[in-house]
């Protein structure tokens, strides 16, 4: 019993570290010097050897259900590739704060999708969270950012679409985890996602190879963020209550907004700040409602 608070504190610290690591991903995408989809390709392909090794170790320990992919695992990879492509283009056209906040609406779409497709009626608390998130989204889209974004409306729309793709990815991962270990699912989804992002980059004739050493470092950092950040969050989610984890992970877009201000001179306007607070607050309320429903 005396070790439980220490273990909980460790898991919470790992969760915070994972969220902070992921917060740097939009920065490295901007600094990569490649096209948006190409940055996604390097993020996944450079992380793949480590993920494959982790999957092999998990399978060897008898915890993975084998290394062979399932149809649902491959679908997860396709959705993840689309998620990264849309998000990176969102980062390209709008501010990193807008792109990250809007992309974090996926928990709302997951439950909304279960409501519409599976007839899983959500609680009133979730509906309230959905209303807050939508109000925040509207405020973000209506505000004029403080940076020099190329096309904010397009970037915001792509970022919202990102959350839909990520919601589909999460639903597939949940099903895939019934038959395979987390490392195996992550390895296969990353492999398929790398193919998807590469095809998009080639189809749109993007700059595929970084033109400088700094660009290569940014791509390598993206791979590192993918392994350490996503890995830390996945590990901590098994140790920390879902309600707590869902709120802590929302520190990511807040830190990303600060980094965008400091590195790219993209300060948020008061209306954007209000919209961001409403959107993230709505997501937190929706997550808490979903966690409460699962307990019941």
Question: What descriptors fit this protein?
Answer:
296 residues; globular; 0% strand; 79% helix; mainly alpha
In short:
The protein is an all-alpha fold and 296 residues long. The protein has helices at residues 4-23, 25-31, 36-60, 71-93, 96-103, 106-118, 124-142, 152-176, 182-203, 213-237, 242-248, 251-264, 270-295.
Q: Would you give an account of this structure?
A:
- With 296 residues, the protein is mainly α.
- It has one domain (4-295).
- It has helices spanning 4-23, 25-31, 36-60, 71-93, 96-103, 106-118, 124-142, 152-176, 182-203, 213-237, 242-248, 251-264, 270-295.
- Helix 11 runs antiparallel to helix 13.
- The radius of gyration is 19 Å and the shape is globular.
Could you report the average pLDDT, rounded to the nearest whole number?
83
Described by the principal axes of the CA atoms, the overall outline is: globular
Helix content: over 70%
Largest sheet: none
Which class do the helix and strand fractions yield?
Answer: mainly alpha
Number of strands: 0
Q: Span from first to last CA?
A: 26 Å
